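Hi V.,

You were right to ask for the full record rather than a summary. Here it is.
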Amino acid sequence: MLIVNIIDILFYRAFLSKIYLTAGVDYRFLSPDAAQELAALDPPANAVLVQDSYAGCDCRDLLGTIREAGRKAGRELPILCLRPFEEGQHQEHQACQILGPEVMPVNRLTLAGVLAELKAASQARQPVAGPREILFVDAGRTLLHVVRAALASSGFRVVSARNAEDALALCRRHAFELVLTSVLLPGMSGLELCRKLKEDNAGPYLPVIMLSSSDNALDMDTAFNYGADDYLLKSFTAEMLSKKVSEHLDIAERKRHNKILVVDDSKLIREMLRHNFVKNGHCVLTAENGAKALELALAEQPDVVVTDIEMPEMDGYELCEHIRKQPELRNTLVVIMSARGHASDIKRGERLGVSRYFVKPFDVEKMHLVVEQLLGESYRHLKKEHEHVLSSMSALITALEARDEYTKGHTARVSRMAMRLGRAMGLGERELRNLEIGSNLHDIGKIGVRDAVLLKPGRLTPEEYAIIQEHAVIGAEILRPIASLAPVLPLILLHHERWDGRGYPTAISGEDIPLGARIIAIADAFDAMTTDRPYRKGMPLSQALDIIREEAGRQFCPICAEAFLTMLDGEAAAPREDLAEEPA
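Predicted structure:
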């Protein structure tokens, strides 16, 4: 669920972010002047939160913009009004009358409850997701069986077409994740099919992988010139195909999250670039001058800004200077496009940290390829930085476990078991990656718990247990400054919540607890029960499974518990050492 917040008070951003993080809700911030961007958001907003008043904007005009965005999306957007105080009935009535009876007043005490209601209503409206579908196009049947067998274990459903015409008809009726097509087809070739799919596709970005028996470099170049995203020889193995498909689906998912801000006072150039980037799967924002672009950049934090130089209000150079001064935009890449092609202009751009400089007129396709290259380089850099951070955190976990010989290996065992359960429950690649990171870092907050409590050999007093409980919050706070770990924070913060609402630190219950946190909770409890402690021996596997069975629907999520018990069915007699060495 996505909540869009239209606010102009910086203080509100901090405490709203904390509430949303705890509630497991996605959120974005827009300034009042950028409210018109609401209609173009992808994914669309599920609700909008506004202030009770603004410095330079009439609330009623803003509400009109929000309602218009809802009409364009074919639905009515719930509107919440954030009140700066805990109000009585009379004041609440006044808030509704000023903004309209359909606007729901909220404050810092009531917002979490309203979010829970909206989240439940949103989930109730969502259809149950079916298997991810891939279209395979080939005249024969033999290769179809090979492809289906190769992708079955990854949870994909392969739909087949025997020619390009049937494939185009299927693509008009279904939203496929990816297309695998042979080059040689009866009638229209796979190359022409690829070109039509790329030109006519009005939906989300659709990767196309060409399959061929030819390893000729010219044939490969021809396929890429027709718009293919990759080229694979038909002598592929199941592992090669599965890896290639996962790689391109990851790229497609990443593109949907990439934001490109196009800034030019020429509407023609803005629309030309916007169309090209959208066609290739990116989320695109536009602005007609540097001042509006800066405001939009601060609200949306784009990955790339493509900007002209000569514009009213604020030119491209000023925009670059302001971007470089903003800490939240430190990773934003800047590409300049200008009719000014003097060496001095290009040098000035370099001094401002501009990544590329295009002289108008320029080739739009070349611009797209350069932006794709920059995004790819940025992703690899951030991934490397991410891996470095994780290795550092892992070293801290190892140091933490070295304080207590009875917890050595706990993190690795919990991670292995959580990943087994995540795969058994059919989690996607992105969810599995987050689960792996979250399970490896779930106890990092124990670094902030003093040894006298953490290493106490006997039972803890209520006061000491309260200190131990703080580790979930401490862990989330330690990792919060690392932007790339934002999706993992709820798993670390909430992995000690209970299905019945009697857990900590927030006492939320049921499906309000993120699925990854529910999975880690079972893996963590299972390892704690079956591992020796100073005050007791680890219990047999069968006894631990009986406890999980009894606690399903109370301590543990019943769906996760059932999947866990099914996964370990028949292993109750296996030695503990064998189970611990199960690969992730």
